[in-house]
Amino acid sequence: MTDAAPLTGPGSRPGGPGSRPDGPSRRPARKAPRVVVAAGLTLALAAGIAYAAELGPFDPGPPIPDPEATRQARAFLSDWEAGRMSRAAALTSRPEQAERVLKSFTAGLDISEPTLTPGAVTAGEDGTVTVAFTAKMPVTELGTWTYASAVPLREQDDGTWKVEWALSLVHPKLSGTEKFRLEREDAAGPKINDRDGDALSSRTHPSLAPLLPQIAGGSGAGPRGAVRLVDRVTGEVKATEASFGKKSDRPADRPVATTLDATWQSAAEKAIAAEADGKDAALVALRIDDGEILAVANSPSSGFNRAVSGTYAPGSTWKLVTTSALLLKDAVAPGDVVDCPKYLTVGKRFQNVETSEHRGATFRKDFTTSCNTAFISLRDKVGDQELGDVAGKYFGVGQKWSVGIPSYDGSVPTPRDQTEKAASMIGQGRVQANPLIMASVTATAVSGAFHQPTLTGGAKDTTATTPLPREVVTQLRELMRATVTDGTASVLADLPGEVGAKTGTAEVSEDAPNNGWFVAYRGNVAVACVVEKGVTGGASAGPVVRSLLGAVPDDPS
Questions:
Q1: Cis, peptide link before residue 300, omega less than 30° from 0
Q2: Is 3.40.50.880 the CATH number for 67-176?
Q3: What are the distances in angstroms from CA 393 to CA 399, 434, 476, 520?
Q4: How far apart are CA 465 and CA 468, in angstroms?
Q5: Same fold across 67-176 and 264-551
Q6: Where are the chain's structural domains?
Q7: Residue 266's CB: how many other CB atoms inside 10 A?
Q8: In the prediction, which pLDDT does 218 show?
């Protein structure tokens, strides 16, 4: 570093900083560049050190995870979630052990339909990738166990990625020395009886599986249990990972009474099992004069209670409400001619099932054949909010119901445009209901009075409705009866007595088959059934209702 060496030469003074006695002093300005150069060199060295240490602006950041690893983790979680244990295990480094553990974990803890949600993805210095996930594990009849874990992945020699199998992947505390055990306290839950005092259980009536815990919970208690972490050898409890249920002040020998009828419940479950062709379906039967629920059936029998909490477009069964709105203001009479063309365009093209048409048809014919285009052509006869007003005022739809278990009580929003109004006339658009609601609508239509549906009896009724005029009820009953004798509900024609019905077909999307609907009344009972992807109501839901009514000829007292 020559610029920093001391000056030497003629006339220089050994101790002087570059000045001579016989001349002007040498300027010290040359020292400044020496400092600058030295400082620059210091910065360069510091930068080099920073770069080597991956600090500051030269830090390249954490390793970037390979997208293929993330896709593999998501595929593993998706297969596990769907119960495809063999496929999930095949994505791991130890397929046989993985399949055995995944199956035993879900079966041993009575877990059904888990939800596994992937989260943050990180890459390690050793080339591994980890995908965090949240597990929501529904424990049958108890509740949902939620926890966090992660899927580790490692790249293979051939460039593919595999899930690095470990017990801790399933749950962070699962190991070779500790496992989980489900403990139930079924005795803590109250007994649940039908209207005649006969015991009900999910073993005798599988379709009640999603209802009974709710009924018990509403009584102040329900099934209790816990997931324990235990020693694999000794069985000693190490920790409690999840607890379910609560204690009740109700005496253990005091059962919960319901309005259900064991005979009707059994017949309803058998009808769905025999006639729904394995499709998802739901049915509700209730008494017309007081709203007491006799049967609630769901297929599949476990999981979501679609009969009471489902949200469906009710399709043409909603024409009971639309017809009521038209009759209430004398906008149409059964004998009036209301043409039924194949198509009618209101922003979009509407059509009838199988593009049927009935030129010069009466309104009675339109109802019994479920003509969409005829009903849509009458849309200007009712105000934009009128369908919702009639549904709430006379049928209680959209009001808060106290059924005894959680329920969805319907929605009829004001249409946003004429296309949506046209759809609302035929139970499409944003109109939402379920079998409980449509069984109640049927009961109100044929009796004139809304009775809040109830499953446990004695529930506080906070609804406020107005009875339908007697002449409207008479016409509705006649139209429903004609639908059985001369229309789309002929599947019930061979049943004795006065039986009336209305069919419905509800569009789901352009790519999915329609849902099939069927509502009916006989004596003091109203029934509603939906079969998902049933295509038409008469062909799918109709046989279910026919099977039920044929198996239980007498109404319950």
A1: yes
A2: no
A3: 9, 19, 17, 22
A4: 9
A5: no
A6: 67-176, 186-254, 264-551
A7: 17
A8: 62
Give the H or E element holding residue 471.
helix 470-486
pTM over 0.70: no
Contacts of 351 (CB under 8 A, 6+ apart): 342, 343, 344, 372, 373
What is the chain's mean pLDDT, rounded? 87
Q: Distance (Å, rounded) from C-alpha 444 to C-alpha 324? A: 11
pLDDT at 54: 42
Beta carbons of 446 and 287 less than 8 angstroms apart: no
245-292 per-position pLDDT tens digit: 766 555 555 788 999 999 999 999 999 999 999 999 999 999 999 999
Whether 529 shows a pLDDT value over 60: the answer reads yes
Per DSSP, the residues of 13-62 read -TTSSS--TTSPPPPGGGHHHHHHHHHHHHHHHHHHHHHHHT-GGG---S
Annotate 244-264 with DSSP letters as a single string. Answer: E----SS-TT-PEE-S--HHH
CA angle (110, 115, 117) in 5-degree steps: 145
User: Which two three-digit tokens encode residue 27?
Assistant: 């300027």
Please identify which residue in the block is written with the tokens 């739809």: 397
Rounded Cα distance, 436 and 432, in Å: 12
Tell me: the pLDDT tens digits for 452-463? 999 987 778 889
The residues, ordered by sequence, that sit 6+ positions from 454 with a Cβ below 8 Å of its Cβ are 259, 291, 292, 293, 402, 403, 404
List of E strands, 322-481: 343-345, 349-351
The pLDDT value recorded for residue 189 is 55
End-to-end, the C-alpha distance of the chain in Å comes to 112
The correct CATH number of 264-551 out of 3.40.710.10, 3.40.50.300, 3.10.350.10, 3.90.180.10 is 3.40.710.10
pLDDT digits (tens, 9 = 90+) for 137-161: 999 878 899 999 999 999 999 999 9
List, for residues 341-396, the tens digit of each pLDDT value.
Answer: 999 999 999 999 877 889 999 999 999 999 999 999 999 999 999 999 999 999 99
pLDDT at 460: 82
